[in-house]
Structures are given as C-alpha cells and as structure tokens.
TrEMBL record:
This is TetR family transcriptional regulator. Residues 7-67 form the HTH tetR-type domain. PROSITE patterns: HTH_TETR_2. It comes from Lactobacillus xylocopicola. The keyword DNA-binding applies. It comes from the Bacteria. Residues 30-49 bind DNA. Signal peptide: none annotated. The keyword Hydrolase does not apply. Keywords: DNA-binding.
Length: 163
C-alpha cells in the first residue's frame, strides 16, 4: 500500500511540475508550490525527493532511461511502441522535452563513428525529437500509427542512404 501511495504521489508531483514549468524554470520552482499544485503535503514530497534539484535529476534520469529502454525493448515497431507509451502517459514526456533531454540522449546514444553516419544519425534523432515534441504539444492528435509510419519512412531512407 505504501508503494502505491508513493507512486501516486510521484505522479501528482510530476504533473504539478509539468504545469509549473509552463511559467517557471526549474531553478525558480519551490517545494511549497509543487505541493500546493499537486495537492500533497511537504512530507509526501520529501518521502520521494530531497529537494527540487533532486526531483529534476531523478526525472531526467528516469525519462532518459525510459526512452532508451523503450527503443531497446521494442525491436519490432519501436517507434509505434514509443508513441503508444507517450500517448498513454504524456506528462513525463512533456517534462522530457521541457528539460530538452532529447539533446542529451542524442549525445549519449550516437557513437563516434564515420562522420557521414554520425551526422546522419544526429539529423535523424533531431528530426525524430521534433516530430514527437510537436505531436505531443498537439495532444497526440494524429494516430500513433500515422506518426510511426512517417518516422519509419525517414529512418529507412536514412539507412538506405548510408548503405
């Protein structure tokens, strides 16, 4: 039961942070404001995080790991699986793009390789991040299948061009 309450508190905190980040930077967020927005008490916040920076660091780490794991786990239609995940739970992914974590993933995930392949990978990942970010900002209006089809088309073209 305690784990369930903790998970619920984390979700409330994430949603509150997402809402507050529309008008504030992470540096200006205050625990009291997050708690008020989330409808939780300060002890619930501190059961999960030591401070706002701990919250931000944990969210960043979680979101990066989750994004990479989804890509790794779903060899068959990885983009469709990722898009479905985003549509089911958009809040953390909105935070993901608010923190500009797509840039960090691109840096970490692109190995030092032949220049043309490296630049092609950077180009693709940047485009992928922008497509997903735009789709998310439009409340996932287009179907997951439609967006996945577009992404797969450009991924296939990229791979073919490098062959």
């Amino acid at each position: 039961m305690k784990n369930k309450n903790r998970k619920e508190s984390r979700i409330k905190i994430q949603l509150a942070v997402l809402k507050l980040l529309h008008d504030h930077d992470v540096e200006s967020l205050k625990v009291i404001d997050i708690c008020r927005e989330a409808g939780i008490n300060r002890s619930s916040f501190y059961d999960n995080y030591s401070d706002v920076y701990d919250l931000a660091a944990n969210l960043k780490e979680y979101l990066i790991d989750e994004f990479i794991q989804k890509q790794t786990d779903s060899q068959n239609q990885p983009y469709l699986v990722l898009l479905q995940q985003i549509k089911q739970n958009p809040a953390p992914y909105k935070i993901f793009f608010k923190f500009k974590l797509q840039n960090q993933i691109a840096r970490e995930a692109i190995p030092d390789e032949e220049a043309s392949a490296r630049y092609s990978e950077i180009f693709f990942r940047t485009g992928l991040a922008n497509v997903i970010s735009t789709w998310l900002n439009e409340d996932c209006g287009a179907s997951c299948e439609e967006i996945a089809k577009i992404i797969e088309y450009y991924n296939t073209a990229r791979v073919t061009a490098l062959s």
